[in-house]
Amino acid sequence: MSLFSLLSVSESGMTAQRTRAELLVENLANAETTRTPEGGPYRRKDVVFESAPAESPFSSVFESQLGQPDGVRIAEVVQDNSEPERRFQPGHPDADKDGYVAFPRMNPAEDMVDLMGASRSFEANVSAISAVKDMIQRSIDLLR
Length: 144
Known about the structure:
The structure is a single chain. This protein is of the alpha+beta class. The protein has 3 helices and 4 strands, in the order H-E-H-E-E-E-H. The strands form 2 sheets. The chain has a two-stranded antiparallel sheet. A two-stranded antiparallel ribbon has the order 3-4. Helix 1 (3-29) runs antiparallel to helix 3. The longest helix has 35 residues, at 108-142.
């Protein structure tokens, strides 16, 4: 495994965590959205990761013989299909005949914790890239 393939592994992790963070921010922004173009309240979204071969632009014949390291990619984006939370708000424009409004079923505190986890995972991948970059630089310095 070359140092360049390690860069691809960290890059795939950063891409996956960025997408996860974008969806978590979308969830937080729509925590009180009662009306969507599809009808009904907003539905919480989350990503499902899967292992995938890391594609390195610096691949060589030797890497193909040794095997590719695994990275991560997004397998799918899942939508929460649980029943919406019903709140009694008779003056709300989206209230039903009984005065109840359907709100998204989500926990903003849980999404904030997930967002912090995504941020820390992103930062860990940045640190890994920085370490690999330093190793490559030291290797170049040794060859001088």
